[in-house]
Amino acid sequence: MGFQEESAMENSTLIDPCFVCNKPPFEPCHEGCPEHNVVGARDGSRRKKIREQLTQKTESEEEGIARRLAEARTVAALFVQTDGVYYNVPGVDPWDKSRDARSYPGPHPVVAHPPCERWGVFWSGGPRAHMTGQLRKLGDDDGCFRSAVNAVRTYGGVIEHPRGSKAWDVYGIKRPSKWSGWMVADAFGGFTCSVDQGSYGHRSRKTTWLCASCAPLDSAAGISATKRSAA
């Protein structure tokens, strides 16, 4: 073995293996490697260049992941008040009456606040409606709750409605109890619970029901499978 080879072998621990195929220094790279048949110790500039190229590629992939994560953080707020709390919030796409949230096409998960007038305790119109005979129809909300459920089951997200909402019964969602915490809501992978908005800053207790879906479902499942006839 010549002096130069001995010197190179003594200093081999100071030279990195091939950054592409991880072959040890002073050994030809694997077939298919850009460094194939090139002894690493004799071509450190090529190895450095390849390392830089792969490092740039990795950074590009990381940037793509960051971009997709940013897109995933976007949430559509459906049936919200114009210029309300959901407006001018980064990552929130608000849908007020003028945009007609019933036509929301996706793809982001949603926070839905469909109208509750025709689903709550006074769904029929209250005492005045009974006195005048102008009773309202249960669930007559122009398809708002139906579209909200469909959006949550398709794109993921959560629906908010007052405690006791009859929409839970009509659309096959189990009623949560006060202390149940999150529980299975339906046959579509949804979960439901009861919370007090007062625990989150509201001035009154205001008990509210939530129905959430973490994973989008095949739209072929459809909403009609759970809809029941309104009483």
How would you explain this protein's 3D organization?
The chain is α/β, with parallel strands linked by helices and 231 residues long. The protein folds into two domains: 3-70, no CATH class; 74-221, no CATH class. The chain contains five helices and seven strands. A seven-stranded mixed β-sheet has the order 2-1-3-4-7-6-5, covered by helices on one side. Strand 5 (183-184) and strand 6 form a beta hairpin. The N and C termini lie far apart (96 Å).
Query: Low-confidence stretches at least 5 residues in length (pLDDT < 50)?
Result: 1-14, 216-231
Helical content (DSSP H or I, runs of 4+): 25-40%
Total domain units: 2
- How far is the first residue's CA from the last residue's CA? 96 Å
Average of per-residue pLDDT values: 74
- Helix and strand content put the structural class at alpha/beta
The rounded Rg comes to 30 Å
How many helices?
A: 5
- List the quaternary state of the chains: single chain
Shape category: elongated
